[in-house]
Specification:
The protein is built from 15 helices and eight strands. It folds into two domains: 11-179, Rossmann fold, CATH 3.40.50.1970; 183-386, Dehydroquinate synthase-like, alpha domain (Up-down Bundle). The protein is an alpha/beta fold. Helix 12 crosses helix 13 (322-339). A hairpin with a 4-residue loop joins strand 6 (149-154) and strand 7.
């Protein structure tokens, strides 16, 4: 096990009806707020009215930035920064899923910074200050409600890059599972894929003597496998939605499940190029890429992949070699993603091989990807081709 330091300052407020605590929590950060949300589903469900009522009850003047895209655009982030600066707004409130939360983090980081917020994502600058951020989560997936990461798309340059800053942890996050009842079947699938691959990125490593962390990862994976199909078949099943919401939060919150372990993240970088160029859903891209990354690298540590097959997918090890178990676990992962309705190939989502070399080159612009197996441009291109 590696040495580590772990700190997570986000206050989680979990359970049905917890939106009623929003006004009190937000009032600690000033008398104005920028309300950031997506395509309008929070208006159709009535959540927008509840949020406004809470803020107004506590004397908070609200400015709004709707229309955050599924792969949030740098241009929209800049609009939010301008609104905050022009109106001297001290607090950002994100109401939505991971894309809304990521855009809100970028806004919070960008307001105090004199240069372009894109400097952070290109690793040209380090954030020194940020506006406080609160969130109300409506989609279980990214873990952005309790982590310091955000991913933004520069659509003009077709680049999708992430940035981590300890200043970007939300001050509080309200997690009411009933707010995810209206999430459609495909988005439930993509959320499950996203949170599972977050765990994979931490689980597949070469660090020795980490039995607790490994079993924490495996328990989250098994809980997602048990609950995602239930949530798809019965969207109003509170237990299934609550378990998925907590899995998403625990899967990626700065290391709670993986302290002391190395991490990989190559597959996320590979997928970011896909959604930057083709604007596909992040979870859909991961459902295609990740099993093929597994197939490309599994021999780097057969024992971990065999363990994954037995502990997560309950594959009987009797009479099987480690390699046979590893391949069975990879196939079980692919089959589960497919059972949820997530795509398995790039062809299914209308993507061919014409831009593979371009995407592979961009993916390694900051250097080789991953840690489990270092991937260069040729490796990334090979994974894309496996995914066709």
């Amino acid at each position: 096990m590696n040495s580590f330091a772990f700190h997570n300052p986000t206050k989680i407020i979990f359970g049905e009806g917890t939106v009623s605590r929003l006004g009190k929590e937000a009032s600690a950060y000033g008398s104005k707020a920028l309300l950031v949300y997506g395509g309008g589903s929070i208006k159709r469900t009535g959540l927008h009215d509840k949020v406004l009522a809470q803020l107004q009850e506590h004397g908070i003047e609200v400015f709004e930035l709707p229309g955050i895209e599924p792969n949030p655009r740098l241009s929209t982030v800049r609009k939010g920064i301008d609104i905050c600066r022009e109106n001297d707004i001290p607090f950002v409130l994100a109401v939505g899923g991971g894309s809304v939360l990521d855009a809100s983090k970028a806004i919070a980081l960008g307001v105090p910074y004199e240069g372009s917020v894109w400097d952070f994502y290109e690793h040209k600058a380090t954030a020194k200050a940020a506006l406080p951020l609160g969130t109300v989560l409506t989609l279980s997936a990214t873990g952005s409600e309790m982590n310091s990461a955000s991913v933004i798309t520069n659509w003009e340059e077709r680049r999708k890059l992430g940035y981590l800053s300890p200043l970007a942890f939300p001050r509080f996050s309200i997690l009411d599972p009933t707010l995810t009842y209206t999430v459609p079947r495909d988005q439930t699938a993509y959320g499950a894929v996203d949170m599972m691959t977050h765990v994979f990125e931490q689980y597949f490593n070469h660090t020795k003597d980490t039995p607790l962390q490994e079993r924490l990862c495996e328990s989250i994976l098994k809980t997602i496998v048990e609950n995602a199909p239930v949530a798809q078949e019965n969207p109003n099943d509170y237990a299934a939605r609550a378990n998925l919401m907590l899995c998403g939060t625990y899967a990626l919150n700065g290391g709670m499940i993986s302290v002391g372990m190395d991490q990989d993240w190559a597959s996320h970088d590979i997928e970011h190029e896909l959604s930057a160029v083709y604007d596909i859903a992040h979870g859909a891209g991961l459902s295609i890429v990740y099993p093929n990354w597994m197939k490309y690298v599994y021999r780097e540590r057969l024992d971990r992949f065999a363990q994954f097959a037995v502990r997560v997918w309950d594959i009987d090890p009797s009479g099987k070699t480690e390699e046979e178990l590893a391949l069975a676990g990879i196939q079980a992962t692919r089959d589960f993603f497919r059972s949820l309705g997530a795509p398995s190939t790039l062809t299914e989502v209308g993507i061919g091989e014409d831009r593979i070399e371009e995407m592979a080159a961009k993916s390694v612009s900051f250097g080789p990807l991953g840690h489990f197996k270092k991937l260069g441009q040729e490796d990334v291109a090979a994974i894309y081709r496996l995914s066709l």
